[in-house]
Amino acid sequence: MNEVYEARIPIYPRAVKGRFRNLKWTVLGLAYSVYFLLPWLRWERPHGPDQAVLFDIPGRSFYLFNLLVHPQDIFWLAGLLIIAALLLFMVTGMAGRVFCGYFCFQTLWTDLFMWIERRMQGDRAARMRLDRDGPAFKRLTLRTITHLLYLVAAFATGFTFIVYWGDAPTLTVSFFTGQAAYAAYFTAGFLTLTTYVFAGILREQVCIYMCPYSRFQSVMFDRDTLIVSYDQKRGEAAAGRRLMGKGPRDHEARLADGIGDCIDCGMCVQVCPVGIDIRDGLQYQCIHCALCIDACDNVMDRLGWDRGLIRYTSENALAGKPARVLKPKTFGYGIPLLLIIGVLIWSIATQAPLDASVSQVRQPLFVTLSDGSVQNSYQIKLNNKAQQAVTLELRISGLPGAVLDTGRIETIELLPQQSTTLLARVRYPAQPGVGQQRPLSFEIVPVAPSGMEPVVITSQFSH
């Protein structure tokens, strides 16, 4: 009976040193520093929590340093997601899957887990020996310790995520004393499990089979896209690649015999985290981590030959054609990207400290009073988005002769981040005609502090 699924081939990535590996360590260090330390950073505010980044769901406010995001500003998130998508598409079209190789969460956490594995079980050769013919007790002990460390790293990941949603010190105490909300334990447990499974067990399977990006990223490539490539013309030459022990060792002699610069050492395959051979050409499994470049460059350095047998390049460059950077696709992504970034920055910079809305009460639409005048009712919602208390007055304009009635309320005082709803009535002398609507404006005028702009909202008066 044929198997439905191909059995997984174990991958034992080898450690490598080089400029791209150093770049990956740098990105990993920065990403981990931001993720794990940011919720503990304190930030002084005139009003509100002193945590630099806090997603306060009960208070319906997101604190991002000096920026305060309210539910009404959810379109900022939409803009940010569009920016991220356009940036990803543009970078992919220009430089391939660099996001996957350096910035993807799966890559960052898998790198950490593979580092733990190497520290506990040794490098590639040692791990292969351990799995093949190592003592059972030693194999079980080392694997148990390794997976316990995986779980520690996974739990740190899950727990750090939840402290973004509450005051970090307070939530930490309540979490470990069993007093936190059920959602905190569920979220931390869920993220611990998924991080452990994805980065510790599945690893390259996530990139190959689960990530949709690996399947459609090729549609953004063209012959000018920078990708990790093997220079087949240089590596194979006329007589193909050959091990150093099966041919002349001198470079000039190898060239004279038509032998390529690839000595078939297999180092590029051994360091690949997804287990592919880059010499077979571009493959959807490749995450462009460039570790094969470091491995090949190290071999070339030891031999005293030129680097670049495997390198970041484009198909046009390999064919000897000039590579284009500024092309229609780049402008097609870049121009909308810059426009949306500009609009988002403008929207954040010009956000009003006071948010208000007016809705006319529809049942009934109007009421005729005993003196013959007509009364409309309005529901006015006010939200103080400023970091200080405000005192407001409500006025009307645009309808001469109309009278505003707010009961006994003369001024409205709102504390920072406070919202309120006010019922206002407007009376207007009866006018000839039935079913008419007249324009009416509500003015929310800040009395204190000074310098705040009034908010004017246009509505209708029905009679």
Automatic annotation (TrEMBL):
<dbReference type="InterPro" id="IPR013783">
    <property type="entry name" value="Ig-like_fold"/>
</dbReference>
<feature type="transmembrane region" description="Helical">
    <location>
        <begin position="74"/>
        <end position="105"/>
    </location>
</feature>
<dbReference type="GO" id="GO:0005886">
    <property type="term" value="C:plasma membrane"/>
</dbReference>
<dbReference type="Pfam" id="PF13746">
    <property type="entry name" value="Fer4_18"/>
</dbReference>
<keyword id="KW-0812">Transmembrane</keyword>
<protein>
    <submittedName>
        <fullName>Cytochrome c oxidase accessory protein FixG</fullName>
    </submittedName>
</protein>
<keyword id="KW-0411">Iron-sulfur</keyword>
<feature type="transmembrane region" description="Helical">
    <location>
        <begin position="331"/>
        <end position="349"/>
    </location>
</feature>
<dbReference type="GO" id="GO:0046872">
    <property type="term" value="F:metal ion binding"/>
</dbReference>
<dbReference type="InterPro" id="IPR017900">
    <property type="entry name" value="4Fe4S_Fe_S_CS"/>
</dbReference>
<dbReference type="GO" id="GO:0051539">
    <property type="term" value="F:4 iron, 4 sulfur cluster binding"/>
</dbReference>
<keyword id="KW-1133">Transmembrane helix</keyword>
<keyword id="KW-0479">Metal-binding</keyword>
<feature type="transmembrane region" description="Helical">
    <location>
        <begin position="23"/>
        <end position="41"/>
    </location>
</feature>
<keyword id="KW-0249">Electron transport</keyword>
<keyword id="KW-0004">4Fe-4S</keyword>
<feature type="transmembrane region" description="Helical">
    <location>
        <begin position="148"/>
        <end position="166"/>
    </location>
</feature>
<keyword id="KW-0813">Transport</keyword>
<keyword id="KW-0408">Iron</keyword>
<dbReference type="Pfam" id="PF12801">
    <property type="entry name" value="Fer4_5"/>
</dbReference>
<keyword id="KW-0472">Membrane</keyword>
<dbReference type="InterPro" id="IPR017896">
    <property type="entry name" value="4Fe4S_Fe-S-bd"/>
</dbReference>
<dbReference type="Pfam" id="PF11614">
    <property type="entry name" value="FixG_C"/>
</dbReference>
<dbReference type="InterPro" id="IPR051684">
    <property type="entry name" value="Electron_Trans/Redox"/>
</dbReference>
<dbReference type="InterPro" id="IPR032879">
    <property type="entry name" value="FixG_C"/>
</dbReference>
<feature type="transmembrane region" description="Helical">
    <location>
        <begin position="182"/>
        <end position="202"/>
    </location>
</feature>
<feature type="domain" description="4Fe-4S ferredoxin-type">
    <location>
        <begin position="251"/>
        <end position="281"/>
    </location>
</feature>
<dbReference type="InterPro" id="IPR014116">
    <property type="entry name" value="Cyt_c_oxidase_cbb3_FixG"/>
</dbReference>
<dbReference type="InterPro" id="IPR009051">
    <property type="entry name" value="Helical_ferredxn"/>
</dbReference>
